[in-house]
Amino acid sequence: QCPGIEPLCLDLADWDATEAAVGAAGPFELLVNNAAVAELQPFLEVTRAALQRSLDVNLQAVLHVSQIVARQMIAQGVSGAIVNVSSQASQRALRDHAVYCSTKSALDMLSKVMAMELGPHKIRVNTVNPTVVMTNMGRINWSDPQKSAAMISRIPLGKFAEVDDVVNSILFLLSDKSAMTTGSSLMVDGGFLVS
C-alpha cells in the first residue's frame, strides 16, 4: 500500500545483524518501535528464558534500533520523531505479567531519557500506551472470556482497542501536529488507568 517502503525481516535480539541491516537502511525521519513479546507467567514461575527474551525484544531492541536511527538523523541534521509502543501495563500491575509490566515500565523510562537527550537534536520521543489491542498477540493472551471480562469491566469505554486506535495515536505523535510533545506517554486505554 505504501510504495518505497522496504521491510527488513530480522531477529532484533541479534545485535550485530540488527546493526548491519538497519545501519544500511535509511535515511530516516521517523521511527516506530512496535516489536514486543508477552511471556505471561506467575511471578513465582518466571523463567530465565522468558525474562531474557522479553528484555531482548521489549527493551534492548528498542534501545539499539533507536540508537542506529537517531545517529543517522543527527548526522543528516534531520528533525525526527520516534514513537515507542508501550502499554497500560507499564503503569498498573497485572496478574501473570511480572516480566511484561516490568519491561514496559522500563521502556517508558528509556523513552523519557531518549527525549531528554535527543531533544537538543530536534528529535522527539514519545510512547503510546494502549490497553489490550486486538492483534494476534492480544487475541492469544485474552481469548479466555473469564479473563477478558474481568479486564473489560475495568475499562470505562467497555472494550479493548482496535489496531486503528493505536495507529491513529502513533500518526499524531509522528506528525507536526504534536511538534511540541516529547517525553510523553499517550494512554490509549479506554480509561483503564482512571478506573
Automatic annotation (TrEMBL):
Subunit structure: Homotetramer.
GO MF: carbonyl reductase (NADPH) activity; L-xylulose reductase (NADPH) activity
Keywords: NADP, Oxidoreductase
GO biological process, one term: xylulose metabolic process
Keyword Oxidoreductase: yes
Position of the signal peptide: none
Family per similarity comment: Belongs to the short-chain dehydrogenases/reductases (SDR) family.
Name recorded for this polypeptide: DER reductase
Species of origin: Pluvianellus socialis (Magellanic plover)
